[in-house]
């Protein structure tokens, strides 16, 4: 497939963190099982085609595919990626989405990045026709939910476990990119990260200072991935909480930025109020995708892709139009934005509580419901793609204008 068109995409939500249950046991929450995609994937791929889309954020369940050092079960990946190729759908391969195999423990394991890089290289070697990758999805969310808020995986709270998880996630991401490039030198890495902003609720010195800190902290995953120098306050924070100077410098020396597209995810929940006591709460949309993405682009100067957004009915269609208007205005104003994604193809399950329980509540966020009936936002997205895809292709909005 020629990669010279604007990337209109959707995705298969494939989170699989381990969560604690009230009885003290632990549960692997696999969204592909909850939405029945693990059994109905052929039907779901046809839905992607029905929408007129040629790109899909998709990956195998890492925890069930990487069985041990040098041991892999490729059976499901072989079947699904073969079918995607037959249908002419280009995957943006999602290799790690909020969890690791049981034998690797959790994101506190400093050996995990090396094992993950070996897995990523084995994957790329097995499927040499694939070019687009998201090695580790939403690093900041994975580290925050697992090691600062205590919700997933290691279920730890505090700055030190957060910095450990963040460092291991970023290192795994970086090592995987190098490993993939050794067997696929034309690989492009679309790093999907939450696009966030923090607003001070009070004008006090304490509240303003903490808000400024959080607005620098939000960049950490991208800063390490892209070798961007952090401010002194953040450097001190990293060192005070366990990252060594040598580890920090490793990121500066091992970036593969020239192979990267900055993927920005934006939801109604991505902006926050900072209260006087240091706590935060959702503020709703204040600045919006346009303003916040402009901040990220100004910092990293990379091609941009809007990699995730959604909203429940009845707001979904209006939200789609609003997000698309933001994307188009960014492009008109000189930001090299190369793609847009409604995430996900299907309704999701239990994301209203960030997968923190086994409630089986359906969240009406998809282009299709779980009976595979198209939602109004699915019809609207199909129409949007059919109208804009020829226009954007003729204006050369695609990735071919960059020297990857």
UniProtKB/TrEMBL annotation:
Keywords: Hydrolase. Pfam families: Glyco_hydro_1 (PF00232). GO terms for molecular function: hydrolase activity, hydrolyzing O-glycosyl compounds. This is Family 1 glycosylhydrolase. The lineage of its organism: Bacteria, Pseudomonadati, Bacteroidota, Cytophagia, Cytophagales. GO terms for biological process: carbohydrate metabolic process.
């Amino acid at each position: 497939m020629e990669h010279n068109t604007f990337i209109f995409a959707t995705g298969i939500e494939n989170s699989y963190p381990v969560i604690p249950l009230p009885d003290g046991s632990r549960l692997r929450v696999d969204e592909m099982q909850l939405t029945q995609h693990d059994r109905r994937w052929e039907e779901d791929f046809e839905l992607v085609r029905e929408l007129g889309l040629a790109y899909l954020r998709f990956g195998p369940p890492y925890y069930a595919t990487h069985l041990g050092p040098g041991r892999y079960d490729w059976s499901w990946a072989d079947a699904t990626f073969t079918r995607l190729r037959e249908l002419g759908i280009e995957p943006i391969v999602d290799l790690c989405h909020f969890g690791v195999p049981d034998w690797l423990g959790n994101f506190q394991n400093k050996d995990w990045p090396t094992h993950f890089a070996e897995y990523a290289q084995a994957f790329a070697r097995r499927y040499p026709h694939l070019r687009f990758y998201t090695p580790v999805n939403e690093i900041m969310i994975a580290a925050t939910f697992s090691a600062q808020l205590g919700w997933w995986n290691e279920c730890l709270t505090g700055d030190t476990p957060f910095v450990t998880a963040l460092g291991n996630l970023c290192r795994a991401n970086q090592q995987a990119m190098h490993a993939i490039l050794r067997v696929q030198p034309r690989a492009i890495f679309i790093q999907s990260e939450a696009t966030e902003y923090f607003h001070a609720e009070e004008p006090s010195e304490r509240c303003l200072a903490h808000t400024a800190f959080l607005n620098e902290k939000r960049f950490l995953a991208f800063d390490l991935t892209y070798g961007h120098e952090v401010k002194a306050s953040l450097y001190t924070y990293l060192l005070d909480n366990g990252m060594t100077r040598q580890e920090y410098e490793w990121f500066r020396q091992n970036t593969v930025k020239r192979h990267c597209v900055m993927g920005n995810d934006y939801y109604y929940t991505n902006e926050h109020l900072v209260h006087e006591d240091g706590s935060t709460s959702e503020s709703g949309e204040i600045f919006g995708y346009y303003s916040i993405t402009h901040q990220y682009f100004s910092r990293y100067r990379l091609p941009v892709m809007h990699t995730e957004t959604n909203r429940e009915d009845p707001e979904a269609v209006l939200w789609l139009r609003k997000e698309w208007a933001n994307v188009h205005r960014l492009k008109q104003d000189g930001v090299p934005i190369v793609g847009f994604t409604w995430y996900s193809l299907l309704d999701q399950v239990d994301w209203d509580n960030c997968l923190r329980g086994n409630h089986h509540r359906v969240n009406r966020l998809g282009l299709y419901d779980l009976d595979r009936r198209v939602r109004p936002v699915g019809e609207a997205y199909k129409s949007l793609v059919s109208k804009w895809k020829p226009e954007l292709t003729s204006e050369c909005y695609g990735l071919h204008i960059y020297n990857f």
